[in-house]
Every structure is written in C-alpha cells, then in structure tokens.
Amino acid sequence: MCSRLQPLCGQSCARELEKARLQLQEEVRQASGQLLEERKKREAHEALARRLQKRVLLLTKERDGMRAILGSYDSELTPAEYSPQLTRRMREAEDMLQKAHAHSSEMEAQLSQALEELGAQKQRADMLEVELKMLRTQAAPAEESFLFSREEVSSLRLKIEELEGERRHLEEDKKMLEAQLERLTLQGDYDQSRTKVLHLRLNPARAARQQLHEGRQQLQDECERLRELVRALERGGPVPADLEAAAGLPSSKEVAELRKQVESAELKNQRLKEVFQTKIQEFRKVCYTLTGYQVDITTENQYRLSSMYAERKGDCLIFKAAGPSGTKMQLLETEFSRTVQELVELHLLRQDSIPAFLSALTLDLFSRQTVA
C-alpha cells in the first residue's frame, strides 16, 4: 500500500512543480513583453524629442536669417521711406515674433511633455527590469527542484512499469491455472481424497448410450432403404411396394396427373410471357410516341434515352439510378450531353427537374429541325 502511495505523492508533487514552473515562465514572458513595449515607447519618445530639438534649431536659424535680411533691407532705404516701411515691418515682425513665440512655446511644451513621458517610461522600464530579475531568481530554484522531481518521477515511473509487468504476469498465470482447472474438471478429474464416487444401479449414462445406439441403428436402416430406392429409380423400373410405402412416394397415376399439370402451367407461363412481351413493346412504342424518347436498359441501373428529333443516331442521354430505392436519377456525361450544358445547368443543377430538362431538350431539337 505504501509503495502505491509513494508514486502518487511523487506524481502530485511533480504536477504542482510543473504548474508553478509554467506559471513563472508565463509571468517572465509577460514581463519581457511589457519591457519590450516600454523600450519601444521610450525609443519613440527619444526620437520625437530629437525631432523637436532639430525643429527648434531650425526656427532659431530661420529667425536669425530673417533679422539679417531685414537689416540689409533697412540699409538700402532712404530716410523718407524708412519710417512707414519700418512701422509696417515692425508690425509684421511683431506678428511673426508672436507666432514664433507661440510655436516655440508649443514646441517647448511638447518637448517637456515628451521628456516627462520619457522619464516615466525609463522609470517603468527600470521597474520591469527589476521585476524580471526577481522573477528569474524565483524561477531558478523552481527549475532546479523541477529537475530533481523529474528524476524522482522517472524512477517512480520505472517502478510503476515493473509493478505493472509483474501484475500482468500474475494475471496470465492465474488465467492459465484457471483454464487448466476447468479442463481437468471437464475431463472428469477430481480430488480423490475429498470426493467419493457413487455408482447407481439405474445409470442414466448407460441408458443414454443405449438410446443413442438404437437411434443410430434406425438411421442406418433408413439410409439403406433410401439407397435401394435410389438404385431402383436410377434403373427406371417399378419401385417395390415396400420401398414405395416406406418412402411415401405418390403412385404412377398421380405422377402422370402432376406431369400434365406442370405442362399446362408451363404452357400458360409461355403464353403470359408472349403477352407480356407484346405489351412491353406496345408500351415502349406508346412512350416513344408520347414523350419522344426511346428508353433502353444498357446495364444494371443504367438507362439510355434517345430522342426522335436527334440529329445523329448516336446522340443519347444516359441516366443512372441511385439511392436506396433507385428513385433518384443521375445524368452521366456523354458526348451529346456536353453539347447541351446550358440546359443541364438550368434544369438539372438549378431547378433539379429531369422532366423539365427532357421537355426543354425536345423543344430545342424540334426547333432545330423546324428551322433547318
């Protein structure tokens, strides 16, 4: 009992360790995925900050260039033109300066926001790295214990397999011993030290053997009489009275009467066949006249239809009976059926109506002959 509980405990511990290892691996995988996403976000924010810094530099250079252009333009103006032009330029410059300040402040706000988000992402990435290291340190002893438990499980499995093999051997030995005991019992073997045999005066086994012997003798006599009857019939001579009575055969008069009845029945059957053949031919002609199709049976469950309006003698359709009762018909592909694919698709595939298909085909062939 203890040897059976030990493998079960080892298996449960192994399952728990395997479950813990898988859970730690899943947590490590999730932490690695989050760390990768945070690193990507940080790289994106760093790229955005670099772009914003470049844009600020470009705006600064553009401002310096505009100041230089305005200075060179002022040097070329006369004193009379300077004041109104200067006033107008001052207003334009102030407007541009306000726009530049607004854009610069917006860029600075975006830059500061990007830097704050970058700092937060860096902090989150650092926290995730620390958490990942902790999970890895927790997973290491679990993996070591799992490896150790795996060795225990493998040894326990070997013990279980050995015990299963011993159990199978014992069951086979048990079955062999039971079969031997049953065979010996059927053969009449018994334990003489425990069993006493009583012999009856009126033994049922002896009476059964006597009855079997008498029945065998009667069957042999019956076989002999039947052999003599067969030999007499083969010779063609009269059957002895004793054999005729024993076999229960009819008399010669009854045999002649039976022969006349058989001949009359055969003649009637022949006449019925002729009538049926005539009616079948008449029915085929009527069907051909009414429907315009001659139906012939080619092979088992296959029927060939030839139209009276066919352009060629070999133009025919072949249907095959399918289904449990043979009521469902399938059109087999022939050279003639390939020429009427439009009718096949319309009436058979879409409408699922063989009579409509045959009617449309008859009208089509009839119209061809009429036009010709």
From TrEMBL:
Similarity field: Belongs to the MAD1 family.
Keywords for the protein's UniProt record, in alphabetical order: Acetylation, Cell cycle, Cell division, Centromere, Chromosome, Coiled coil, Cytoplasm, Cytoskeleton, Isopeptide bond, Kinetochore, Mitosis, Nucleus, Phosphoprotein, Ubl conjugation
Residue ranges of coiled coil: 14-62, 90-282
Transmembrane stretches, start-end: none
Tagged with keyword Nucleus: yes
Listed name of the protein: Mitotic spindle assembly checkpoint protein MAD1
GO biological process: attachment of mitotic spindle microtubules to kinetochore; cell division; mitotic spindle assembly checkpoint signaling
Protein's job: Component of the spindle-assembly checkpoint that prevents the onset of anaphase until all chromosomes are properly aligned at the metaphase plate. Forms a heterotetrameric complex with the closed conformation form of MAD2L1 (C-MAD2) at unattached kinetochores during prometaphase, recruits an open conformation of MAD2L1 (O-MAD2) and promotes the conversion of O-MAD2 to C-MAD2, which ensures mitotic checkpoint signaling.
Keyword Signal: no
GO cellular component terms attached to this protein's record: centrosome; kinetochore; MAD1 complex; mitotic spindle; mitotic spindle assembly checkpoint MAD1-MAD2 complex; nuclear envelope; spindle pole
UniProt xrefs under SUPFAM superfamilies: Mitotic arrest deficient-like 1, Mad1
Native organism: Camelus ferus (Wild bactrian camel)
